[in-house]
Amino acid sequence: MSSRMSFAPEPVAAAGVYSFPTLKAKLILERLQQLQIPTSEETLDNPQKNVQEVQNVFAKLVEFTMGVTREEMNQPVFAGLNVLNYAQLHEDSVPELAFFRAVSKMMTASCVHDFSFNDLQTPNKTRLKRQLSAVINFCMFREGRMQVYNALATEKENLLANVQALGEDNERLERELASLTERTSQEAAETEMVEADCRAMEAQISALNREQAATRAQSGDLKRQANGLKDRLAALDLETKEAIMERERLQAQIVSSPDRIRREMADQQAALEQERTEGMAAEKQAQRTELTAANVARAEREVVKATRALDDIEEELGRQKEALREVRAAQRALAENGAKSAAAAADAAVLRRHAARLDEKLAHLRRQGRARAEAADASLAALRAELAEEEAARQAELAEAEAAEAEVRQLEELLATERAQAAAEAEDHVRKFKSLEGAVLQYHKLLRAAMQGPLPPPSSSSS
């Protein structure tokens, strides 16, 4: 629609009074053609001979400016027809009145306040051009304001959509913030528990390390003692074997008394028992040493296990530290998301304020529209009163015209009678004139004869 409404200057407002140019007939036709309202120059030059065409032009203008078609205006208000005694008599007057009201409202909005019913029934060439110029100017004014309104409405819709999108993003970020907060609190509690377990395991590992160091030192001592005892036991076994071999060799060489041999054997037996006792003690000591070595080996295996467990704990601690770093990163991201959420909330507040300003502008435009509508309704009420007065005056004029017509008829009849009487009198006068003319001619003839000779004797007819 904006492509065809690029004509006419903007209305000039000065001290609350709007003015508009009166366009020439050719320009009016061009503008109406742009509005897709065809008409002819004959209609503008002789509107009284093209009343129906003029009404059609006004109907198209009402449809363009107010969105009400002639068919809709031709539909009577059936709910109001019930209060009339003879509703069928108003089937034509109600649509005509509705059409006049719509055109009057349009003309009032176009700052033409003297529009009357006569402008539809007996249009005047000059007034018609002025009225069409006003409506064309109003169409341009309306189109400009509609463009501003549509732009503001579109901007408002975009802002509301942005506000809604930001609100949804804000809600999503708040949900993520709550989820991250809850997850962070849970992970913080788990991290504290893991750190406490790690500290306990570190203390246990430190104690095991100290026990391992002491056990290693003790194991080294015991190993050295066991090796010494093994060496001593081997030396004793060797000495015992050498002594037995020496005894057998000596027994083969020396012949002693039985008592001496018995004593030596008893001594050797005692020495052997002592050696056996010492060997058994050494063996027990060796067993204890082996047991201690086994315990040390078992302790070493436990230490290895503890070391592996310590490595696992250190690895788990590393994972927990990594998880803690992730938690801290999530906290930083959470803080950043909180900042973004705050920025989004600020943007949403700005957009809401902008939308509120747009709502205020729209409300201002609506108030202006209502004020103009109220002014138009007031003007319409005044026009209705004026229409009623004009209708009463028209009825009075019709009565006077009928009386004048009756009087004219009477005058015409009287004139006809007088004309007939005058014609009769004229004919009588003509007859009398002709008779007088004949008498005069006869008199002149007699007079001329008397002057020329003696008078003839009077005839019996002339006497």
UniProtKB/TrEMBL annotation:
Similarity section: Belongs to the NUF2 family.
The keyword Nucleus appears for this protein: yes
GO MF entry, a single one: protein-containing complex binding
Protein name from the UniProt record: Nuf2 family-domain-containing protein
Any one Pfam family match given in the protein's UniProt record, by short name: Nuf2_DHR10-like
Assigned keywords, A-Z: Cell cycle, Cell division, Centromere, Chromosome, Coiled coil, Kinetochore, Mitosis, Nucleus
Gene Ontology biological process terms in this record: attachment of mitotic spindle microtubules to kinetochore; cell division; kinetochore organization; meiotic chromosome segregation; mitotic spindle organization
Listed GO CC annotations: Ndc80 complex; nucleus
Residues in Nuf2 DHR10-like domain copies: 270-385
